Amino acid sequence: MYVEVNSGGKQYKVQQGQVLRVEKIPGDVGNPVTFERVLMFSDGENVSIGQPELEDVAVEGHIVEQGKAKKIIVFKYKRRKRYRRKKGHRQEFTAVRIDGIKTKAQKKPETGAEPEAKAKDLETEAASPKTEQTKMAAPDKEASTKAEKTVAKPNSSKSEQESK
What we know:
Blueprint: E1 2-7, E2 10-14, E3 19-23, E4 32-35, E5 38-42, E6 47-54, E7 57-68, E8 72-78, E9 83-89, E10 92-103, H1 113-163
């Protein structure tokens, strides 16, 4: 079973028991951490892909280490201009041990008011076809009167042209 998690603008493939190094997360060693932004979940047989996230899956873990990564050197140089700048940078990270992948239940118990509302909707749908037939007949009349008006306009313009 594995999960794709988004943290610090990066995506990580995570399994239970794995130690993951992510961008700095506030907290002390031993504090619990929950990753809510789950992009993909696979249980071995089924794969669920979020659009963009899965709401019913969360990854839980605890902080193992807070630290800084190995130093990288940033060197800026422009040839023939005597321009050289050397800088070092150590990115802060948090090491998290994944304790488990939890799925939440999405189904909510139905209340007595909801089935009554569904019954009322069914009653109104049974009555609505009659009104739809009358509404369908009315546009035909309106369309025919609009067609007569458009036919009348060219005739009047022809008569004006003939008089000139």
